[in-house]
Amino acid sequence: MSGSDYTLSARSWRRAGVASLAALATCMLAAPAMAQDTAPLPEPQATPPSDQADDRAQDIVVTGSRIQSSGFNAPTPTTVIGEEQIAANAQPNVFTTIAQLPSLQGSSGTQTNTFSTSSGQQGLSSFSLRGVGAIRTLTLLDGQRVVGANVTGVPDVSLFPQLLIKRVDVVNGGASASYGSDAVGGVVNFITDTRFEGIKGNVLGSITDYADDETVLVQLAAGKSFLNDTVHFVVSTEYGNEAGVGPGPYGIGLAGGRDWFTQRTLVNRNITNDGNPQLVLRDFAQSIGFTKYGLITAGPLQGIAFDQAGNPFQFQYGSNGVPVRDAAGTVRGCDFGFCQGGDVSGNVDSGRSIKSSIERLNTYTRLGWDFAPGNELYFSANIGQVKTQNQPINGQNRPNLTIQCANPFVPQIVRNQCAAAGITSFRYGTSNAALGSTQVHTDRRQYRFVVGAKGKTPVFGTDWNYDIYFEHGTNYSDIDVSNIHLSRRFNQAIDAISLDGTIVCRDPVARANGCQPLNIIGGNPSEAAIRYVQPENGPFQRTRQTQDVVSLNFSGQPFESWAGPVSFAFGGEARHEYYRVYGDPYGGGVVDAPANANYPVDPVLLPGGANWYAGNYYPGTGAYSVVEGFVEVDLPIINSDALGRANLNGAVRVTDYSTSGTVWAWKIGGTWELPIDGLRIRGVTSRDIRAPNLSELFAAPVTTTLPNFFDPFNNRNVLALQYTTGNPALTPELARNTTAGIALSNPSWFRGFSASFDWYKIKIDDVIGSLGAGDIVNYCFGNILPQTCNAFNLNNPNGPNFINVQSFNFASIETEGFDIEASYQWRNPLGLPGQFVLRGLATHVAKYVSDTGLPGTIPGDSAGQNFGATPNWKWLVTQSYSNDQFSLLLQERWFTSGKINNNYVECEPGSCPVSTPVNQTISPQDNFVPGAFYMDVGGTYNLTEEVTAYFKVDNLFDEDPALSPFFSNPALYDALGRTYRVGVRFKF
């Protein structure tokens, strides 16, 4: 941050602090005038779910609006998941329950991000509404922001106090004008029970049908009021441990004996004009570039593989493949790098963790004091820790190595064949099974504190609500990677020679710095060699993020129009976001090692970093400040028996970012309750924003040397340095969000029935994306993307020249579809005591178009691509019956079939057009991906009035995920299989 930015930030915080303290003092002084109001401060209530609607008018605060209103007056559709529904779903993490909603597409969790080493998002529970990403979904706790658990700024829901959650409001539409940045897809707001009295707990255990993912969850909460019900204290704690589902062995097998994995691979034939599809789908595929313990992949000895003991044998390629033994490594009968069948024991994809393990420990405390009736001062603390672990893949593939025939680890019989063939080296590939498989461990610790005041006070004869708070949050995220090698040490260690009868590393500089020769011919390297190429302390990342928020919100009804009370809300917020990350991409085990004049200790390593096989985390730091204010108005315009009731709702928010300046967000909408009983229409259009996050703005620079980079301005090759870094010049993404719908709520002629239909359309411009070094220069040269012209300097032919590879605002996203929700309550069905409830929710994604707008690219519509997160249709339906003694629940989750890629051109073999890079050809059956249907069943039984036993079976029919050329798609499919859960809840 520059000096001027820091000055602006400090001024902003001083202004915000003075304003908040003045407002707090005003409210406390005004409150005693309300002594005649003896009712306790009510919790904000959101739009009641359609299965709980009744005839009573309710004063509520609808999430997505700052206006207090009654009934369904807010124009933005909201789905509510109540405490009872959360309990009935019996999940060890409330995140899983909410993520099942059809409008949530692409959320992360313990079954996603398990295939990567460097993302830093393993085990991160974060929501994505409308498929636009977690960074464009605002997640709140009691209407307040939560410190990010990742440099992208998204919080970890598994750190929330889950036993105290009363309900979750999911706003399916833009809400930036009311709540600020990131609410492009919508808002997910967790409402806690701040007035809980008594003691309650929950103990849950679960296991899959494959005897894994053993889970234990223990939760306990207590609440008590003191001093004539003016002091309220609640506390909760919970411990959860989900063992996860680990990797399978090399080959085809998966963990627990799961049999759905076939190493399905989408093979590119690289033939575009022979009338046949360019892309073909193959099961039991194997790479011709490596095996578990090593394979000679080209030249006269091609096809010789090695077992664990280092003994050579002839590899069985499958597909009746025959090695041509040419320099290109061709295998006749196989499709461009892959054979089908044969020896598949070296396949590595089976080594991916299906679900990360996760261990959670959360505590939450809240103390509130009603300093006057209806007015409260409060303090809350949320401290939690989440640890996860996963294995991204089996081994550490190195498919294009060169081994000298004279290498003393090469068996004599192979050296003899080298001599006979007249070669001195051969190309070699191995998955390095002997080095073990990489493990990724994450540890996130959150410390969040809030102090605030809320309540009601009279101003000029009318009551005004206020909500003022200060939040400070700190999140520490540690990532440690083990069993991973330093690539340059590996290269030195495998190049072995015999010196005075001893096997040593060839390079004398490497030898002098501890190089130990590594035998990768087979699977028996020495322990000293393993420790040299894989130090005990692998790559790591240590991140500290802080968030400070001061927020002031006021709402009231100062006067009435011809149609009823006019509601106003206004307020402001100041926020400061900061992060600092340490890492060791250098391999020296020293944080910020390049700052050490004696670094690198090992000259084999690159001083610029990127030495690890994966997991090259770099140090960096950054911060920005935000000051914003908003006004919202709800104006009744019709109130008559003949025309019904209608209102207009509008809001505007101005936001000033220390990095990018001022931006405006707004919304205008309304509802019309028609004179037809229970029927109303609603709609809203808004301009929403998503500010660039800390990672996009301030990612630490990574340096790469480009020795022959082409300079199109001077038509020459130059030496250039590529700096991969953040871009402080990024501006907020701008979205236009429109919804319109109709709802029927509990009409007198059909009591207990409610239904709604809402159409939506979101267009996001200036989407932040990244470009390569060549594209950055060429798009400037062609005046295609002028903002890239400030990212490089190539004017010195002898160097130093540089290109900053960073993100820019240049892409767009457009999505459109509709939501359907319906429910029916039937009291005393068929004369039985109790209640039957049927509820269904569905989302149809008609299109989801991403467009870079760059030459050589075309827009991609991923709606219905079942290897993304946006199937055409996604449904959730529940049926439940409950009485005073027991309850039963059936739940169905399903989504429709789709494609691998909508841009592929489908054609039958023999009749395909010429395939192009942007429209590759494929057969219809190869491009087809089936949907999935999952049924869950559960129930409860009241052992006493205070103790309830329950059970749940998820994926009752043990539905396997669809076969995939990308292993599996956990964003849609359940890869765990049938899971059994049992538990006990109690409340005293």
Structural notes for this entry:
The chain is mainly beta and about 1000 residues long. It has a domain at about 5-235 and about 355-390 and about 440-480 and about 540-690 and about 725-770 and about 805-895 and about 930-985: Maltoporin, Chain A, CATH 2.40.170.20. It is about 10% helix and about 45% strand. It contains eleven helices and 50 strands. The protein has a 22-stranded antiparallel beta barrel. A four-stranded mixed beta sheet has the order 3-5-6-4. A hairpin with a 3-residue loop joins strand 29 (about 620-640) and strand 30. It starts with a helix and ends with a strand.
Question: What labels would you give this structure?
Answer:
receptor, Maltoporin, Chain A, 45% strand, four-stranded mixed sheet, signal, 11 helices, membrane, globular, mainly beta
Structural class by sheet pairing and helices: mainly beta
Using the CA coordinates, give the radius of gyration: 31 Å
Shape: globular
CATH architecture of one domain: Beta Barrel
Number of strands: 50
